[in-house]
Amino acid sequence: MRVPFLLGLVVFLACIFGILTRPTGFLAAVWPANAILLGLLVRVPKSACWQSWVAAAVGYLAADLLTGATLEKAVLLNAANMVGVAAGYQVYKYLPASSVRLQQPLALLHLAVASAIAASLAGVVGGIANPILFGGGVIPGWIFWSTTELVNYISFLPVILSAPKLEGTLPDFSGLLARLRQEKRAPLILLLISCIAGAVVGGPGAIAFPVPALLWCGVVYPVFPTAILTLCIGVWGLVILSNGLGDSSSLQLDVMTLISIRLGISLVALAPIMLSCVTQSRNALLVRLQYLATHDQLTDVLNRNAFREEVSRSLSLGMNGFALLMVDLDHFKSVNDTYGHAAGDTVLVSFVRRVQGTLRPGSLLGRMGGEEFAIMIPNSQIMDAVAEAEKIRQSVCSEPVAAGDGKLVRVTASLGVVAVEHDKAACLDALLAEADRLCYQAKERGRNRVEHCGAA
């Protein structure tokens, strides 16, 4: 019952906030409760039980009743809220997880569709309630109610859906704070300047002042902070632009102006979030392509070129001695010939996992080709490196590899070890060649052994 209670409490507090922004005769200027409830139900599936729906309904009703609404008004208003949230939840039930978390550009289209469906169905109830509560018509009530709900969903829902680590722990803001501490402050500064300029200049055009800065934020920041910023600017826009509504002589003009303002703000808010989604998807793709270009497809360790580059980069930073190991699996061709290439692949993967289990932090492991691997151990003297090599050799031959279909393949490895006292002792190519020579020397002397030379 803890989750439903917390959900009901969140809804109640969000409703109180919205009620404080509700002008006489209008819906609330800012109503986060529905979007927050929908987002939590979608992000935390275990919360979507009947007890949570009941707790949410109680939260809605309690907020209205405690702030002076009649029971009839509270029931009608919150029937629309519950219908809208239920409709949005049904849409999200059939969407992939990447859309729920706003991890792809198409997720913004899904969000817009879910918000539109939720807002439209809430508007149906609102249209029925409008003549009873406000003395208006059914169609105007549906239009005003739907647009108001749409704006609130589009403004608040991205923040809830993109928020990190909703379950178990507090959100991790360290990445965002690190960006802000370094070179990522400029978009925020421009955003602040544009908001000040909009407040000073005023008028309907002020809504466009923060747009360039928001788009810049969408390029620089992840989706979650971008969604927070667009929400803040949306609320700011409502406050700034709604101040000019009091001069209108007609209530109908006020309503239509308010609808136009809210829709404009919600559509503006979608652009930077969409841009952030595209940017993050592109960055993730580039990271994936970089990983594929530098790692062996089968064993997931560094490939030959990447290993050489990483070792060179490590050496350029300076180390108090290091060791290079060349490792070659013994009689690997016979493994492929006897058990098949699939079994050989299994042996290679198992070998890598065993080696990784013995390596100290900071070591580098790369596949140089076929069954040959290279290892760099930082800050290591020759005897330490030989001991590491012996651990690797023993882990490889300690037990056979299960290669499927009941096949047990016994594997051994030969190792060559070379160590240097400092990073300028010899060039990398010479060290790799020497380690390779020692590895073949181990094979010539009976295999399943370690050969080494003194420190260079």
From TrEMBL:
Enzyme class: transferase
Annotated PROSITE patterns: GGDEF, PROKAR_LIPOPROTEIN
Catalytic reactions of this protein: 2 GTP = 3',3'-c-di-GMP + 2 diphosphate
Keyword field contains Transmembrane helix: yes
EC number from the UniProt entry: 2.7.7.65
Alphabetic keyword roster: Membrane, Transmembrane, Transmembrane helix
Pfam families (alphabetical): GGDEF
Transmembrane parts of this sequence: 75-95, 107-130, 142-161, 188-207, 213-241, 253-275
Residue ranges constituting the GGDEF domain according to the UniProt record: 320-455
Entries under Gene3D superfamilies matching the protein: 3.30.70.270
Record-given protein name: diguanylate cyclase
Organism in which the protein naturally occurs: Roseibium algicola
